[in-house]
């Protein structure tokens, strides 16, 4: 199969509309061709492309910023001598000066298929700026590595943020190219928009969204493999808690824990409360000591989600429900445990991080309600998931 960048590089006829235009690239470390050449280098090597600028999202074009809210500066690329503008610095939106450096923006970002992953918000902001300034946007499409399954509550009205671009569930099921089509419709954008589609992508085939013949490159520092991507729509919620999400280990956002929890007892309580939410994945008790971030240097007892191997079932694994169940079980096993972390999260100070992550307070309220059961969360999530599944059909291209 071929990603959008591969097709553009190989086919001069696809590049024809770019002749005589100033071209900018929005990319990150995972923006590579099939032979692992970075997209910036591959595009610059094309005689018929005039590359005049580049943009980097959260974590930077080079992926050098480890944590959230660590900003990147603008700089001049030392190889291609073009300006590289940060979209995660003093502002998350492009300046008018930056928009004046190009005619066509090529977007080549590997997403994780999760609403909170900020690259889709950056896509929205760039599309809005392009519409305002009369620029064109081309998305060089890439796989949604976790495929088509949909899960989670819809972002509620008034809860838009940098980790919540628009009303969609946590696990949205779209590629970046398809997401752009939905943005144009939802935000009524007057924009010259094109997709260089993938060739041969099979979201329901082997790999369940991620092609088995493609190398995985971290799109952000703590996204080390496909198993992490599969777990992420659930484990990302750990960022809004006092539990370590595994930052400072080699398997971030696949495992979690704390020095003061009994992981074995938590899993037993999870099986008692909602055994159906544990299907499709293997849970393993583990111990780890983060080298940085939460609980740095402390021995933590925790659980790892193994979203891989012979027992993994992509159609049954529901990471958002599973992680919610973890919180519910911890509250039961360790009565009074302070799960929710109150801190400055993604430039928001007046709302709890767990609510910002979920696009509203409903999940937290379900966890905190001692009398709520699994069916109560199911009754509010399932209708949202069905509604989104019906709404996105008009935007699918694969």
Describe the structure.
This protein is an alpha/beta fold and 398 residues long. It is built from twelve helices and ten strands. It has helices at 4-10, 12-15, 39-44, 96-99, 119-133, 176-186, 226-235, 263-273, 319-333, 353-358, 362-368, 374-391; strands at 22-27, 50-56, 75-76, 83-86, 104-108, 136-140, 192-196, 255-258, 282-288, 300-306. The strands form two sheets. It has a seven-stranded mixed beta sheet with strand order 3-4-2-1-5-6-7, sandwiched between helices. It has a three-stranded antiparallel beta sheet with strand order 8-10-9. Strand 6, helix 6 (176-186) and strand 7 (192-196) form a beta-alpha-beta unit.
Briefly note the structural class of the backbone.
Answer: alpha/beta
Quaternary form:
single chain
Described by strand count, sense and barrel closure, the largest sheet is:
7 strands, mixed
Tell me the series of helices and strands, N- to C-terminal. HHEHEEEHEHEHEHEHEEHHHH
Q: For the residues shown, what is the average pLDDT?
A: 95
């Amino acid at each position: 199969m071929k990603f959008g960048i591969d097709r553009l590089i190989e086919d001069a006829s696809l590049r024809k509309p770019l002749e005589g235009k100033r071209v900018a690239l929005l990319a990150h470390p995972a923006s590579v061709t099939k032979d692992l050449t970075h997209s910036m280098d591959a595009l610059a090597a094309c005689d018929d492309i005039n590359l005049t600028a580049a943009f980097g999202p959260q974590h930077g074009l080079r992926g050098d910023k480890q944590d959230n809210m660590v900003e990147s500066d603008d700089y001049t690329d030392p190889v291609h001598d073009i300006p590289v503008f940060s979209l995660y610095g003093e502002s998350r939106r492009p300046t008018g000066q930056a928009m004046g450096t190009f005619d066509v923006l090529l977007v080549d970002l590997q997403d994780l298929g999760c609403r909170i992953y900020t690259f889709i918000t950056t896509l929205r902001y760039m599309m809005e700026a392009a519409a305002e300034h009369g620029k064109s946007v081309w998305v060089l499409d890439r796989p949604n590595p976790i495929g088509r399954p949909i899960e989670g509550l819809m972002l509620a009205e008034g809860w838009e943020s940098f980790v919540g671009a628009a009303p969609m569930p946590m696990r949205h099921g779209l590629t970046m190219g398809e997401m752009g089509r939905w943005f144009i419709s939802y935000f009524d954008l007057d924009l010259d928009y094109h997709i260089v589609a993938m060739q041969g992508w099979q979201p329901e085939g082997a790999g369940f969204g991620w092609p088995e013949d493609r190398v995985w490159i971290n799109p952000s520092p703590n996204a080390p493999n496909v198993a992490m991507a599969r777990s992420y729509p659930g484990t990302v919620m750990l960022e809004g808690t006092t539990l370590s999400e595994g930052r400072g280990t080699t398997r971030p956002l696949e495992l979690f824990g704390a020095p003061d929890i009994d992981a074995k007892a938590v899993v037993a309580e999870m099986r008692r409360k909602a055994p159906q939410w544990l299907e499709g994945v293997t849970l393993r008790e583990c111990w780890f000591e983060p080298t940085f971030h939460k609980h740095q240097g402390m021995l933590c007892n925790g659980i790892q989600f193994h979203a891989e191997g012979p027992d993994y079932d992509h159609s049954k694994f529901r990471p958002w429900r599973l992680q919610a169940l973890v919180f519910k079980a911890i509250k039961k096993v360790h009565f009074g445990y302070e799960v929710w972390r109150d801190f400055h999260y993604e430039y928001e100070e007046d709302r709890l991080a767990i609510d910002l992550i979920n696009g509203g307070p409903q999940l937290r309220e379900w966890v905190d309600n001692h009398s709520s059961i699994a069916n109560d969360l199911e009754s509010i999530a399932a209708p949202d998931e069905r509604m989104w599944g019906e709404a996105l059909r008009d935007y699918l291209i694969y």
